[in-house]
Amino acid sequence: MISVPRPSLGARLTSSETHGAAQELARLGVGLGLAAVYGLALGARTGAMSLVQHALAASAGLAAVAVLGIPALFVLLALVNAPVSPGAMLSAGARSLASAGFVLAGLAPSAALLAVTIESPDAAAFVTRAGLTLAGGIGLFQLASSVRAMLHDLTPEARLKCNALLLCFSLFAIMLAARVWYSLPILKGAA
Amino acid sequence: MNSQVLSVFDELLRSPRAIAERSRAGGDLRPLFVASLAALVLGAGVFGATLATSRGGLQLLYSGVKLPLAMVATMLLVVPAFHAIAAGLGRPLSFSGMIGLTLAAAGRGALVLVALSPLTWLCFDRGLTYHPGVLLAVACYGLAGVAALDLVLKGVGFDARGFAIVSLFAGVLFVTGGQTAWMLRPFLGRPSAATVPFFRHRESSFWDAVQQSSLSSFGVYQLTKVEAEGEAIRSSAPGPRLENADESR
Question: What element of type H or E holds A18?
């Protein structure tokens, strides 16, 4: 009997395969949970309640994009007759947010070292922002790739409209995530 | 097993592509782990001790222990980030493959440091002073880093996406490695220092030091409140003043 090696967690979370709604929601949930690990690492700077505050805020940035952004993007793309379905959009959103969460979790060990050992609040805020930007950027890249893959059969004019919408959505998602993430105490200069 | 480990040493230097492919394929990576870790500990230890020849004494032992420690600690901290960045950008590798690739790259870099050790020792022996010595060490780390990242690039793919993954990983590695090494300093030690500490007391950060050094290179000098108080006391005392007399890296 030939045993097929099980794909790694990263491969499963970032896979472009579409699954059922329950599995996609589970993927989204795992992504948000992984983002909380990054928050915990940041919270180690001051400890105690700060751990919970940072964990919640780190996940909340991604959750806000999932709840407020992805449905809005689906409606707008449907308005220009893009061939998108709720299931495909859920899959694309889950994949992108799971990727962002996975990257945040990967950065957590480095973030914990830096948050605990860096004395300057400005420097600590800088490395925190860098981590969030990196993970958010990778998440957006995944979402844009997934959505663009759905637009192959469109006319150039329709594709242009969809790409413009995708660009506007990206700006909105960046502003929304930044708005939530700026509630992180470490970004407010907490020592 | 021993002959396999020795052949991996050779491959680390001559065939980075074969090492990268072996890490990607998975399978039994133990000889690769053992050889890479041995190269890392030996190479960084020799280079660390070489850096300390400017100070001598106990510093030789301390730096020979601390530099491998800094490199291994950095590897432990950055492997998850590398794994996540590669997966996030569409190049998922198994976690053990990622560890193998990162460890092999670090081992290769450490072997380059061994090769640069005689030249570094000769420079210190011929009277290279502290600050040029720091610059020489940075140049050596840079060369070793290029050799290491070359292997990593072969592992993730030699294309635009591979470059993006390696660049982002290099950014995380630079910040994390810099801070880890900063916490474990001094590595060179000041010849004028009366005692040799294993660790310096916690102060500032690698990031602050980079910022301060950048400003200093443009002739802008910043003093913290504590330093300013110390400066006021010292300026009222007699005797010669040396620039950055209290620093050691």
Answer: none
C-alpha to C-alpha distances, A49 to A43, A120, A185, nearest whole angstrom:
8, 21, 11
B111-150 residue pLDDT tens: 999 999 999 999 988 888 877 888 888 899 999 999 999 8
In a domain, A3, yes or no: no
List Cβ neighbours of A83 (8 Å cut-off, separation of 6 or more). Answer: A150, A151, A153, A154
Q: How far apart are CA A139 and CA A8, in angstroms?
A: 18
Instruction: Tell me phi and psi for residue A32, to 5 degrees.
Output: -65, -40
Quick count: other Cβ atoms within 10 Å of Cβ B248?
Answer: 20
Tally of domains in chain A: 1
- The pLDDT-based confidence of B94 (bands split at 50, 70, 90) is confident
The residue type found at B141 is Y
Mean pLDDT of A25-49: 93
Q: How far from the centroid of its chain's Cα atoms is residue A97's Cα?
A: 3
Of A7-16, A112-121, B31-40, B136-145, the least confident: A7-16
Complex ipTM, two decimals? 0.87
- The helix/strand/coil state of A4 is coil
At position B219, the amino acid (one-letter code) is: G
Nearest CA in chain B to A10: B87
Instruction: For residue A101, tell me if it sits in a domain.
Output: yes
Cβ–Cβ below 8 Å for A106 and B204: no
Whether residue A9 lies inside any domain: the answer is no
Burial of B204 (0-12, 13-18, 19+ CB in 10 A): middle
Q: Are the C-beta atoms of residues B95 and A12 closer than 8 Å to each other?
A: no
Do residues A113 and A44 lie in contact, with contact meaning Cβ atoms separated by under 8 Å?
no
Structure tokens at A123: 């420097």
Residues of the domain holding A41:
20-188
| pTM for the predicted model, two decimal places | 0.83
Lookup: tokens for B230: 């110390």
CA distance A142 to chain B (A): 7
Element (H, E) at B48: helix B30-51
Chain B residues lying within 8 Å of A109, measured CB to CB? 76-78, 80-81
Residue B237 distance to chain A (closest CA, Å): 30
For residue B186, cis peptide bond before it (omega within 30 degrees of 0): yes
**Is the distance from CB of A184 to CB of A41 less than 8 angstroms?**
no
Nearest beta carbon to residue A123 from set B83, B84, B208? B208
- The count of C-alpha atoms lying within 13 angstroms of the C-alpha of B205, restricted to the half-sphere facing its C-beta, is 21
